[in-house]
């Protein structure tokens, strides 16, 4: 008798567990019935048909920050640089996010990398630093166009780091050192010139004074 009651209670618990669904505020649930899409359930208490309705997908509805790993790009002036960034997205349509793409997070990363390579290829190395804001906006627009069918919205993109290759860094350092040396030489030559002029002017003035003295 005790075993029967125990099995009965366990059966009721299993039925209730599969009958009642609580969707939290920060998410939505995609329900399938017999393997076919039935509904997208918003936050709250819902009742399902046990063993018939199944939660196929759960989606985070809050803004998500995704790290875009470093990658190598070639600038317009043929310089290799390594860049990374952050892309901020938000799920807008649970059904499209489930069936429109296999993995929208991975797809967003791949698309961000592809777009970044394309856009950086249009700019010179110096422009990638000075036009960072414009580059961010362009990448957001391009990703947002492609991701509309995925049920997500690209909120913003932040280009974090731009690292020229080691050879480029060494070349730039040599150029900067040469420029500093050039400025130092110009400064030194200018000082010597001023000194020579001042000395000559002093000798001339001294000669004038002596001549004036002899006349007097």
Short synopsis of the structure:
The strands form 3 sheets. This protein has a 3-stranded antiparallel beta sheet. The chain has a 3-stranded antiparallel beta sheet with strand order 6-7-8. 52% of the residues lie in helices and 30% in strands.
Describe the structure in your own words:
The chain is 52% helix and 30% strand. It contains six helices and eight strands, in the order αβββββββααααβα. The mean pLDDT is 80.
Order of strands across the widest beta sheet? 3-2-5
- The DSSP helix count reads 6
Runs in which pLDDT lies below 50 for 5 or more consecutive residues are none
Please write the string of helix (H) and strand (E) elements. HEEEEEEEHHHHEH
Work out the radius of gyration. Answer: 36 Å
Structural class: alpha+beta
Helix content: 40-55%
Largest sheet data: 3 strands, antiparallel
Average per-residue pLDDT, rounded, comes to 80
Between the first and last Cα atoms, what is the distance in angstroms?
Answer: 144 Å
Strand tally: 8
What amount of the residues lies in strands?
A: 25-35%
Can you tell me the overall shape? rod-shaped
